[in-house]
Amino acid sequence: MPDPILNLQGVTKTFGGLTAVKDVSFSVARGEIFGVAGPNGSGKSTLFNCMTGIPFGPTRGEIMFNGKRIDGQRPHAIFRAGLARTFQKDAEFPDLTAWETVALGGHYGAGLRGSMSLDAAEEALDLVQFDTSRRDMKTADLSVYAKKQLMIASALVARPDILMLDEPASGLTRPEITALDELLIKVNEAGVTILIIEHVLGLLLSVSQRLLVLNNGAVLTEGEPQEVIRDPRVVEAYIGGAAA
User: Fold this and answer.
1) Where is the ABC transporter domain (predicted)?
2) Structural domain containing residue 55
3) Which residues on neighbouring strands pair with residue 211, listed in sequence order?
C-alpha cells in the first residue's frame, strides 16, 4: 500500500482469560475512508480503545501512526499527534454552549492557545456545517444530530490526520444518516483520513473505500465493500447466530 498513515500488526487485547481482540493487522492509506464492521461483541470498540489508549492500550502488538509507534503512549499524546476519536455515547457538557464545547477541546485537548484555539473552533464548526445560529445554544438543548456534529467538531478541532468515528449514526433518522454521509465525505475531501466503526451498513457501504469485518475479536475479511458483504462468512456472522 502506498503511503499508509496507520498500520496495525498483531494487535491483541486480553482481559484475564478473555481475548477481546485477537491478532488484528491492517493498514489505512492516507486520505481514504476505511470502514470497520462486525456484529455486536465482535471487538470493534475494543480495537478503537487499543489504538487511542482510551481507556487502555493493547496487551501486545504494534501500532504505527505517521511512521511512529504509538502503542503505549498516553491518550493525550496520541490525540495531539494527530489521531482523534469520537465515542458511541455522546460526550457533552450540558451547561456549555456548542461553541464553548469545541473551543474547550481546542484549548485543553489539542493544547492550542489564544487565537489559535478560537480559530480552530470556528474552523471545525464550519467544516461540520454547524449552523451559526445554534452555536450559542446549550449543548443539552441540541438535537441528536446536532450533538453528533458537535462531537465530530470537538475531534476535528485538533486538526487531526485521522478522525476515528465510533458508531456515529447511532440514534439518527434516515434523513440524518444521509446528512451524516454527506458530512463525512466533506470532511474527507478536506484532507482528513477517516476510520469508522458502524452498525449501519448502508452508511459504511456508501462512504468507505475499503471495509474490514471483525468477528469474535479477529479479522474475518477485508476488501472492497461490495465484495465483502457478499462473502458467505460475513452473512453468517451477521445473520447466522454470531455472538451478540
Assistant:
1) 6-241
2) 1-82+161-244
3) 35, 223
Cα–Cα distance, 166 to 218 (Å, whole number):
18
Q: What is the pLDDT of residues 87-96, one digit of tens each?
A: 988 767 899 9
Q: At what angle do helices 174-189 and 144-156 cross, to 10 degrees?
A: 20
Place of cell 472492497: 224
Give yes or no: residues 6 and 120 share one domain.
no
Are the CB atoms for 60 and 12 separated by under 8 Å?
A: yes
Q: What is the pTM of this model?
A: 0.93
pLDDT over 70 percentage in the chain: 97
Beta bridge partners of 19: 14
Instruction: Write out the H or E segment, with its range, that includes residue 233.
Output: helix 232-239
DSSP reduced 3-state for 172:
coil
Work out how many domains the chain is built from and give that number.
Answer: 2
Whole-angstrom Cα distance, residue 21 to residue 13? Answer: 5
